[in-house]
Predict the structure.
Amino acid sequence: MKIGTVGVIGAGQMGNGIAHVCALSGLDVILHDVDEGAIERGLATINGNLARQVAKGTIDDAARDAAMSRIRASGGLEALSACDLAIESATEEEQVKRKIFADICPVLSEHAILATNTSSISITRLAASTDRPERFMGIHFMNPVPRMELVELVRGIATDEDTFKECKGFVDHIGKKATVAEDFPAFIVNRILLPMINEAIYTLYEGVGSVEAIDTAMKLGANHPMGPLELADFIGLDTCLSIMQVLYEGLADSKYRPCPLLVKYVEAGWLGRKANRGFYDYRGEAPVPTR
Ligand SMILES: NC(=O)c1ccc[n+]([C@@H]2O[C@H](COP(=O)([O-])OP(=O)(O)OC[C@H]3O[C@@H](n4cnc5c(N)ncnc54)[C@H](O)[C@@H]3O)[C@@H](O)[C@H]2O)c1
């Protein structure tokens, strides 16, 4: 595999997970975020998650230490000049991602592949905002990255075959299973998953059931490992709303209209687990439903 150094832009829940699996597979990682606190929290999360793997016996202490030593944190973009693959995993807003690409492209080496972990935004449109649409890919990881096996690979209209093959080789190398999705809003997993979550929020909004009733119904009645509202909190309600907006606008179909209650929670800053409050309140010992 040609990829030896991976740059990760955004050290939030997905970015730190991507850094974790890359470092554990022997790749050098440069982890960047605009928020220095996010880098510190990201590194602490990686450390804690690696420790959990040691405790479970899936890796040993030496592997954990080696993985941590392969991750270099950087508040500036310049360090990313060393990477063969840069994976953007910042906030799910097109303008944020476009600004990152504008800043990062002059820094990246000519051969570097630029990828995005977007959950829903058009790969072709994002690629067109860069200086390398042929070397641009969607590499969509699942949450939590260390535990979830799947990665969706999404080509833009201009992505060349070498870029696809190198990205597929990268996914194989880190021990994940790749599926290929075409470049349509939200690809495969979120095209199916997010409307279900949005419908669960409508079910709550219309008073059909409480938070607890809806999650229990789907866990025990449909055999889902997590209830849809618990899952929404886990994904992040801002990310859920952004994905629904991309589906609604991109497919121009009213069936994807984001539930007004989801909009209200995001406006309140109740973004789910990462904000300690969403459909559940996580500030106490055990999560408490908010409705
Ligand atoms: N949450 C999920 O379940 C999930 C799953 C798959 C993919 N994704 C995608 O991954 C991406 C990140 O999501 P997340 O859940 O990790 O979000 P998050 O809110 O946990 O983290 C986002 C990070 O991006 C950083 N950021 C914002 N602007 C930046 C900039 N200009 N430069 C560098 N860093 C910047 C923020 O400081 C923050 O640390 C999104 O595109 C999202 O759609 C999320």
About this structure: Residues 189-289 form a domain with the N-(1-d-carboxylethyl)-l-norvaline Dehydrogenase; domain 2 fold (CATH 1.10.1040.10).
